[in-house]
Amino acid sequence: MSIILDPWFYAVAIPAVFLLGLAKGGFSGVGIAATPLLALYLPPLEAAGLLLPVLITQDLISLYVYRHHWDARSLKVMLPGALAGMAIAWWTASIVSDDAVRLIVGGVGLVFVLNVWLRPHASAVKLSDAAGVFWGAVSGFTSFMTQGGGPPYQVYMLPQLLPKLVLVGTTTIFFAIINALKIGPYFLLGQFTPANLGTSLALLPLAAAANMAGIWLVKRTPTGLFYRIAYALLFVVSVALLYQGLSHLVRGAT
């Protein structure tokens, strides 16, 4: 099994895998930057496919650590929508613009964070089950396309104001299920090339180390600070996605 040897690939892949490790450890907002980083070298869907074995490995570590901390109601509400969103993404994977997906994900995240910051009391209002199904569908769609399901997921989950470890555990279970269900569609879309699979295996030790670092940080971060960091990370990544999507569209139009 071959691997990618270009050093420029690892210049973006190593930071991307480290960000995924922090995300799977609990800082979920930062994980959305991983695929855009890797997409500087590979097409976005191929980058998402290369990262999937890394994500699943990290999921297994986090599932063990947070197995006692999760909210069943949130999963029951969001997972049906996520499955529908993934089905739509699979169907449209060959025709949807990558930059359009970046703009949607970045716009959703930015509007949500600005609403929380400008209307702080609104962040404590829990959304309806229908809203949970909707945002679950958006999260499933964007997760399939770019491994970027975090912002739509957080639009519904952060206002629930769950205890820190419960939020992290619920997030871990949600995306572990989503990632496992991507294996078949990604295989059918031809994203698991020998070089990609070999490279994913080579990155696994770093992925495990980064995951443990994220778990260590989450357990030592006060709840209030944890939420402030989550919102700040979501803001930064959302702006970066908007910039990336707009700049690519402008370059394509000129």
UniProtKB/TrEMBL annotation:
GO cellular component: plasma membrane
Domain of life: Bacteria
Primary site of residence: membrane
Localisation: Cell membrane
Transmembrane segments: 7-27, 47-65, 77-94, 100-118, 130-146, 166-189, 201-219, 225-243
Membrane topology annotation: Multi-pass membrane protein
Keyword terms of this UniProt record: Cell membrane, Membrane, Transmembrane, Transmembrane helix, Transport
UniProt similarity note: Belongs to the 4-toluene sulfonate uptake permease (TSUP) (TC 2.A.102) family.
The protein's name in its UniProt record: Probable membrane transporter protein
